[in-house]
């Protein structure tokens, strides 16, 4: 729940006409009053005996009764909005919310008959508007003190009362959001995003790969940004600002942003923490050590695995520094990764930004930070190396390692009670899972080989890699003796050892949790049992961690329960509960739940199942699903994400693919048993399979023709319905997800 005080106004009548009107795009539905300062106030939306001007006159009456000069800006306006995945509140509940917000701000305290007058108007399911006039009925002015902070504190209480998504009050670590004016200007100029967002990304990429002031400023200029250094009288650089070429004010002046205006951790002192106190040349990796880009990426994955095993284990200050190093790695990898997964990785890096800003002092040079910095340098250095065809496999190895590190980061923030950062890490994990599935889809398409997986190369794990391998070999022999020697002899075994170390740090019994994930399903024709176990452990830890960004908590719990071995506990039999978890269980508190980028949702009806996937001889969506994935057909057809999957299959059919065969190929790319949403996973894989230009394949639109369709043919009705509706729903959700600024 987000209450936000809008700018004070001077026209009560004008605001009420807008709230009761159709809206700027006819988006207002059934405008009506849900509460007012007095039970007898008539609603102009439903009562014929009153009107909007009459209601405005009643609200303004105390203002004109004030002694002295009338107050010019006397209209107090507070929209209160729910998260898009919160349940729908009734009018009676909204009335209670409005009264609580007015009480918290001091505009209308409970039990005060002489308080200011106010009304609450509802014209949508997910929000209300509270309109008050800043004059008490006893002739005194309303005195506001810290009203914004107080309404946020009361909102946190209301979230618990009504079972809504629980947000976190500000900890001063959030990036500055683009203003409405910036967003509108970007739209007029045809930009994909406001300049502030572009500058944040470019400056963060420059900081991630730099080891000195000179390198940092040079990287900014190489990125094509305008740079202005701020210097002291003695010549020392004390700050900087950047501008996007072509971004100017109406008067023709460049629009400059200082680092601190972009994000709290992009000020020059905070950026300098990355290299302050580090000896020159420390950790520098030479290009001569590696024969190809894929080899450098495999080495980087090894360092990420080692960092994930010890992330957050050196104290809060060192952990805060490790979050910065992980954020830098994700930012750098997003710029270097294969084109098929680049956008998802950019989304993951942006989602993780706040997780990299822990509200605590930072110590930047722990062992885990060193591994992460080395991995970042390997990525930068690898850009100058040749390619040998193994980059996709190496990219998958990095994705798995990065996902494990993000899970460790989420647990660190959870233990430190950094709720906003925990949510950010969970969002990044969602995008990394999507990127992994997209990469497997692309890999399956390029190799045409059933079950194709990344090739795990042996990486020298220094300094604790050999110790991990030796320490966990007995654990493997004890937990899974029937396949132990096979696992210990595979290339992915060092990664599995690092994952077991991370699981033990998270509170699991290594042998028991390894036995449980092994018992979930056989290895079938898997090329690497160790790799499969790494993946299952990763999914196990992710599912056991309260996911603050997942909008389907109960559904996920049900799916997880269906794949648990007999006798395991609800939270996982190998999990040792912490004191914080016991306390949470006693007071009944729950983690917040809201998806970061949910799939477009169509009406789940038989119409989706009956949608034809092409011409007259093409199968329907339901038939293709039953033929390709019979074991998961019921789940796929009941999943909201099935609409988007159908749209991608329609596009694939238009490009000459056989829908059922292509879907079966995507299902065979990797085991689906641990997937939270099989339909979503298959959609991601299809996205990777169909992407040829490096960008996610767009869904078919209502305008224009399919890429490979002859101009003389028209699309069949089934295709138009599924594809166009999916695209339209996605656009609507993107517009709704912005919400008020936080």
Describe the overall structure.
This protein is mainly alpha-helical. Helices cover 50% and strands 6% of the residues. It contains 29 helices and eight strands. A five-stranded antiparallel β-sheet has the order 1-3-5-4-2, with helices on both faces. A three-stranded antiparallel β-sheet has the order 6-7-8. α6 (195-208) packs across α11 (316-336), α11 (316-336) packs antiparallel against α12 and α15 (419-447) crosses α28. The radius of gyration is 28 Å and the shape is globular.
How does the helix and strand content classify structurally? mainly alpha
Alpha carbon gap, first and last residue? 11 Å
Which bin fits the share of residues in helices? Answer: 40-55%
- What coarse outline follows from CA principal-axis ratios? globular
| Strands ordered across the widest β-sheet | 1-3-5-4-2
Radius of gyration: 28 Å
Task: Tell me the number of helical segments per DSSP (H or I, 4 or more residues long).
Answer: 29
Uncertain runs: 448-464, 547-605, 693-727, 733-742
Strand content: 5-15%
Number of strands: 8
The description of the largest β-sheet is: 5 strands, antiparallel
**Average pLDDT reading:** 77
List the topology elements.
Blueprint: E1 2-3, H1 12-20, E2 32-36, H2 52-64, E3 75-81, H3 91-105, E4 118-122, E5 127-133, H4 147-162, H5 180-189, H6 195-208, H7 213-222, E6 226-231, E7 237-243, E8 257-258, H8 259-262, H9 268-272, H10 293-310, H11 316-336, H12 339-352, H13 367-382, H14 391-416, H15 419-447, H16 465-479, H17 484-488, H18 493-505, H19 510-519, H20 529-544, H21 553-562, H22 579-587, H23 606-609, H24 621-628, H25 633-638, H26 642-654, H27 659-668, H28 678-690, H29 717-738
Helix pairs in contact: 1-2, 3-4, 6-7, 6-11, 10-13, 10-14, 10-18, 11-12, 11-13, 11-14, 12-15, 14-15, 14-20, 15-28, 16-18, 16-19, 18-20, 19-20, 24-27, 26-28, 26-29, 27-28
Region (Disordered): 171-195, 542-602, 685-742
InterPro entries: Endonuclease_MobA/VirD2
Domain MobA/VirD2-like nuclease: 71-164
């Amino acid at each position: 729940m987000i209450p936000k005080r809008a700018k004070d106004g001077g026209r009560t009548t004008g605001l009420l006409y807008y709230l009761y009107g159709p809206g700027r795009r006819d988006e207002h539905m059934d405008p009506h009053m849900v509460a007012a300062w007095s039970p007898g106030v008539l609603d102009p939306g439903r009562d014929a005996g009153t009107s909007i001007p009459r209601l405005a006159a009643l609200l303004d009456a105390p203002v004109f009764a004030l002694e002295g000069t009338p107050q010019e800006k006397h209209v107090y306006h507070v929209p209160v909005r729910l998260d898009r995945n919160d349940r729908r509140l009734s009018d009676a509940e909204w009335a209670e919310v409005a009264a609580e917000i007015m009480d918290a701000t001091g505009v209308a305290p409970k039990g005060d008959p002489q308080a200011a007058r106010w009304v609450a108007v509802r014209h949508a399911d997910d929000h209300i508007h509270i309109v008050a006039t800043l004059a008490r009925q006893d002739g005194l002015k309303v005195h506001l003190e810290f009203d914004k902070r107080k309404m946020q504190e009361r909102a946190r209480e209301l979230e618990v009362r009504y079972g809504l998504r629980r947000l976190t009050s500000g900890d001063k670590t959030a990036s500055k959001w683009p203003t409405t004016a910036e967003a509108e200007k970007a739209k007029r100029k045809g930009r994909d995003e406001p300049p502030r967002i572009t500058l944040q990304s470019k400056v963060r990429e420059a900081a991630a790969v730099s080891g000195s002031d000179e390198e940092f400023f040079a990287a900014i200029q190489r990125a094509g940004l305008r740079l202005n250094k701020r210097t002291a009288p003695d010549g020392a650089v004390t700050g900087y600002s950047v501008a996007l070429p072509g971004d100017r004010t109406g008067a023709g002046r460049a629009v400059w942003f200082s680092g601190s205006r972009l994000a709290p951790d992009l000020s020059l002192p905070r950026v300098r923490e990355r290299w302050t106190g580090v000896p020159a040349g420390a950790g520098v990796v030479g290009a001569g050590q590696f024969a190809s880009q894929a080899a450098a990426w495999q080495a980087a994955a090894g360092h990420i695995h080692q960092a994930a095993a010890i992330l957050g284990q050196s104290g809060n200050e060192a952990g805060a520094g490790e979050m910065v190093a992980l954020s830098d790695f994700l930012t750098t990898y997003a710029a270097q990764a294969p084109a098929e997964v680049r956008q998802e990785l950019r989304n993951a890096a942006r989602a993780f930004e706040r997780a990299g800003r822990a509200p605590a002092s930072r110590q930047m040079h722990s062992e885990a930070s060193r591994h992460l910095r080395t991995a970042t340098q390997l990525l930068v250095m690898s850009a100058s190396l040749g390619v040998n065809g193994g980059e996709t496999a190496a990219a998958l190895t990095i994705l798995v390692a990065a996902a494990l590190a993000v899970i460790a980061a989420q647990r660190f923030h959870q233990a430190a009670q950094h709720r906003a950062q925990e949510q950010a890490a969970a969002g990044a994990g969602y995008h990394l899972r999507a990127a992994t599935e997209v990469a497997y889809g692309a890999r399956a398409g390029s190799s045409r080989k059933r079950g194709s997986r990344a090739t795990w190369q042996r990486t020298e794990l220094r300094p604790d890699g050999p110790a991990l391998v030796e320490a966990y070999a007995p654990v493997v022999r004890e937990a899974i003796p029937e396949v132990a020697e096979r696992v210990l002899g595979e290339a992915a075994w060092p990664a599995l050892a690092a994952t077991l170390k991370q699981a033990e740090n998270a509170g699991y019994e290594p042998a028991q949790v390894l036995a449980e994930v092994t018992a979930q399903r056989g290895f079938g024709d898997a090329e690497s049992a160790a790799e499969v176990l790494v993946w299952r452990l990763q999914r196990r830890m992710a599912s056991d961690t309260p996911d603050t960004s997942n909008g389907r908590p109960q559904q996920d719990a049900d799916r997880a329960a269906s794949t648990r071995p007999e006798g395991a506990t609800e939270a996982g039999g190998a999990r040792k509960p912490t004191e914080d978890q016991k306390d949470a269980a006693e007071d009944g508190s729950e983690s917040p739940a809201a998806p970061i980028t949910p799939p477009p949702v169509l009406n789940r009806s038989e119409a989706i199942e009956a949608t034809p996937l092409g011409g007259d001889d093409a199968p329907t969506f339901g038939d293709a699903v039953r033929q390709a994935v019979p074991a998961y057909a019921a789940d796929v057809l009941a999943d909201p994400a099935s609409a988007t999957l159908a749209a991608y299959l329609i596009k694939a059919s238009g490009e000459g693919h056989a829908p059922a065969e292509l879907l079966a190929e995507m299902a065979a790319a990797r085991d689906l048993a641990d997937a939270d949403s099989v339909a979503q996973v298959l959609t991601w894989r299809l996205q990777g399979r169909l992407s040829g230009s490096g960008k996610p394949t767009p869904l078919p639109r209502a305008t224009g023709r399919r890429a490979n369709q002859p101009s003389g043919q028209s699309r069949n009705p089934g295709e138009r319905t599924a594809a166009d509706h999916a695209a339209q729903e996605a656009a609507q959700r993107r517009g709704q997800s912005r919400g008020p600024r936080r």
